[in-house]
Structure formats: structure tokens, C-alpha cells
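Class prep. Write one:
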Amino acid sequence: MMSFRDGRLPKLALPQGSVWLLTDIAEAKGRQGFYTKQAPQLLRALREMALVQSVESSNRIEGVTVAPGRLRPLVIGSARPRDRSEEDIHGYRQALNVIHTGARDLAIAPDLLKRLHRIAQEAAGDAGQWKRVENEIVELRQGRAPLVRFRPVSVADTPAAVEELCTPYRHATTPESLRRSSEGWYDGRHDLLPWLDYFLAVIRRAYREFEERAGQVKTPRGAKTALVAAAVEGFHGGFTLAQLERACPGVSRDMVRRVLRDFQRAGRVVCLGRGPGASWRRKGTTSSKG
């Protein structure tokens, strides 16, 4: 909320490190597009894997655990919950389903937040309601008195604060780096950059993990060849082997070279030099330096 007052965001100057993170994310998003078009089955497999892990990890933070053999049926299948812990798992999964199936149409607003809370905490008495009890974020330190790290908005001010948070622009995530970004929050003197850099680094790391996992999951026959072919078609002039490899995340160098040789024998591409740094181009396109 304080982050949006007094035009703080438009005035925020990004350091070079933050710009680099944004550039890496933009490039990774472009590479992801090839998977969306050429390997939808792979994305579905990764999505199921991510759902199971997300539900398990998020609930474990709250002390909610279930037997390993029950987790996947509750998240992916149609198993009915047997106890309160399984009800929490099931509710969290239902809330995720609302987000994943309708993300483009969901407006970040207080009603949506209450709706998601009601779905996720259906078995709780306060499901779909704002907090009723004052609370503090406290760090427990061995041998020393507890330290109050953050004082959230009061019970009385919560509805208006959530409305104010959602109206300008809608986002809140809180890891430890948040402590530096929240110091001076009540006075509007807090520094947004520690949180922003943390958030951008998480997104970049997620893209890298996605590309690593995409290379490990068994893909439908011919999917990787199609991925390389789509990448070749995407070059409008000359390209190098290294550029082609970067455009095909999850495809090994040997595979890229093998497909490129097949395309060369079929007359689809021509090589304009020698060695790993040689430039290639598609037949029928004008050569240009990559």
C-alpha cells in the first residue's frame, strides 16, 4: 500500500542489476514461446509436476502434511479428502485451479482475494473473511527476547488497506529480503529495490528451472526436432550454431547439430563458413551476420 502512494513507483530508478534481470526474463519468455507452440504435451506434464510440488510445499509451510501416496490423487486426480489436512490440500488445489483456468479474466480485487481464501480454507471458520485478531510478524531468537519484524495493518484498517493495495496495482509477496524493503514502511520511507530484485531473481530462476526440467522430461517423438525447426524458421537472416542452441532450450547440442545436418542434406539450410562460429541461413533468405 505505502509502495503505491505519492507516485513512488513511477519515480523509482532501476539500477543496472535490475535491468539485467529484466532482460534475462524477457529473453527466457521468448524461448518459452517455442515450447508453447511445439511441445504442448511437455508443458502439460511440467504443469502437473509444478502443481503437486506447489501444493505440497505451500501447505507444509503451514504445518499441513499428508501421506505421499495421497498427495497426487488429491491434487491431480478426483480423490475426496479424508481429514482436515486433506481438506486443506484439496482447498488449496481448488483455489489454484481458479487461478490457472481463468487468470486472464481475474481482476486483482478484494472480492477475488476473499473468494480464493474461502475456497482454500473452506473448512475453517473464518474462510473468505478479513482477519479478526491483531497480529505481528515475530522472529523467535534462541536465548533472546522475540523481535517484532513487522506490524501488519490493524484489523479495523484491513478492508480499506486491501482496497488501496488492489486499486493502483496488485501485488504482494513476502520473503526475508522483505525486511529491508519494509523498514520505514509506515512513514513511506522504505526501499523497494531489495524486494524487487529478489522478486525478479525468483522469476529468472523459475525460467531456468523450467528450461532444465523441459530437457529432462521425456517429450513426444519428434517434438525436439520440431522445436529446432521452429527456431530455424524464426531466423530472418544468418544465424550461428550458438544462437540456434539458445533458441532451443532443453535440446542438447548434439541434437541441434544432428537436426541442422539433416536440414542441410535436405537443402533447407546452407552453411556459409567453417567451424563452430560459421553462419547458417535458410534457403531463400538473404544472408546477414548473426
In short: The mean pLDDT is 77. The domain at 223-282 is CATH 1.10.10.10 (Arc Repressor Mutant, subunit A).
